[in-house]
Specification:
mainly alpha, 7 helices, 0% strand, transmembrane, membrane, Marvel
Length: 204
C-alpha cells in the first residue's frame, strides 16, 4: 500500500481545524450562556462566529478520513476559509485598535465573564470595577478563529492540488507530473543515437 504525503498532511490539517473550532465554540458558547443568564443584549457578530465554528467543527470531523473523495471538497474548504475570515474580522472590530483597553472588553466581555451582572447593573459598571482580566480569553478566541481559517485555506489548496495531480486516485502512487517526467525521459532516451560497435582494423 502506497501512502502519499497528502494523505498524511490532510488529517493533520483536519485535526487542527477541529481543535480551533472546538476552542472557539467553547469560549463563545460559554460567553453566550452568561449573556443569557444576565439577560444581556445579543451580539450578531458573536452569534455568527459561533454558528460558523459549530458548522466547521462538524465538517472537520466528517472530512477527517483521508479518503480520496474528501479532497473534492476543496471548494467547501475555501468557503469555510472565507467565513472564518469574516467572523474574525467582525469579532476583531469589536475591540478595534484599542485591544484589551477597549470599552467592549470591560463593558461587555469582562462584565459577563466576571458575573458582575448579579451584583452591578450594566449602566453602573466601570473599567475600574471590571478591568481587563478576561482579555486573554478574548485574544485566544481571536487567535484560534484566525488559525482555523488559515487551516481551511491550506486544506482547499491541498485538495485542489490532489484533484489535479491524482484525478483518478493515483492508485499506482504516481501523479500526473511524475508520469509526464517519465514519458519525457523515455522519449529522450529513444532519441539517443545508438553507439556503433568499433570494427577492428587489420594491418596488411
Amino acid at each position: 500500500m502506497i501512502i502519499r504525503g497528502h494523505e498524511v498532511f490532510s488529517p493533520i490539517l483536519r485535526v487542527g481545524e477541529l481543535i480551533s473550532a472546538a476552542v472557539v465554540v467553547g469560549i463563545l458558547a460559554g460567553y453566550e450562556h452568561l449573556v443569557h443568564r444576565g439577560d444581556g443584549p445579543q451580539s450578531g457578530r458573536i452569534i455568527y462566529s459561533l454558528v460558523i465554528a459549530c458548522i466547521t467543527l462538524l465538517f472537520s470531523i466528517l472530512l477527517l478520513t483521508p479518503f480520496h473523495c474528501t479532497f473534492y471538497f476543496f471548494a467547501l474548504d475555501f468557503i469555510f476559509f472565507v467565513c472564518w475570515m469574516v467572523g474574525f474580522g467582525l469579532m476583531a472590530n469589536l475591540t478595534a485598535s484599542d485591544g484589551c483597553d477597549s470599552r467592549w472588553i470591560w463593558y461587555n466581555w469582562g462584565y459577563y465573564w466576571g458575573g458582575y451582572y448579579d451584583t452591578t447593573p450594566l449602566d453602573e459598571v466601570s473599567p475600574v470595577l471590571v478591568g481587563t482580566g478576561y482579555c486573554p480569553r478574548w485574544r485566544a478566541n481571536l487567535a484560534f478563529a484566525f488559525i482555523g481559517g488559515i487551516l481551511w485555506l491550506l486544506s482547499a489548496i491541498l485538495g485542489l492540488y490532489v484533484v489535479l495531480e491524482y484525478p483518478r486516485g493515483g492508485g499506482d502512487g504516481q501523479g500526473r507530473t511524475k508520469r509526464r517526467l517519465q514519458k519525457v525521459t523515455r522519449f529522450q532516451r529513444g532519441r539517443e543515437p545508438v553507439a556503433q560497435p568499433e570494427t577492428a582494423q587489420t594491418n596488411v
